## 1
Amino acid sequence: MLIIDFELRGDFITLDRLLKATGLADSGGEAKAMVAAGKVQVDGQDELRKTCKVRAGQVVAVHGTRVRICAAREPAGA
């Protein structure tokens, strides 16, 4: 199983944008179709909302890949 650590740049990312940003979907349309088809889970539960907000600490699973959502790291010296 492939595990991807995804670092947020804000408070959240929508599920469809996450799938596209990680390369799990080639386009936003494909990402939305994957979610609508019930192929995506968030924290172990099927997720059918294409634009659900995914936040740090959550895990998204699709096609044998898990994406761990991480909070943005503080810049050095901040």
## 2
Amino acid sequence: MSYPNDGPGYYGPPPQTHPNGTAILVLGILSLVICSILGPFAWVMGNTALREIDESGYYYENRGAVQAGRICGIISSVLMMITVGFLVFAFGMALVFGGFDGSR
């Protein structure tokens, strides 16, 4: 015995897209490829958007894009911190060992 096709059932409201989802993903990718200073912005915006998504109770179809942009921002921020730390270390060592000696 088969049942008639009633069509798709009602599963709640249609999925929404977070308004900053695409911007967060673009900032995260650009922070890895072009300019790492954009990384902290993608990280903070991603945290805010994920908090809004979790607190809303609705299903957002671009949660993965928000999360990917946030992770790219985290990676870029960590790489930028390592680079700045290395530069501070290198300039400190140059100062200690006379790399900036002006007696020439």
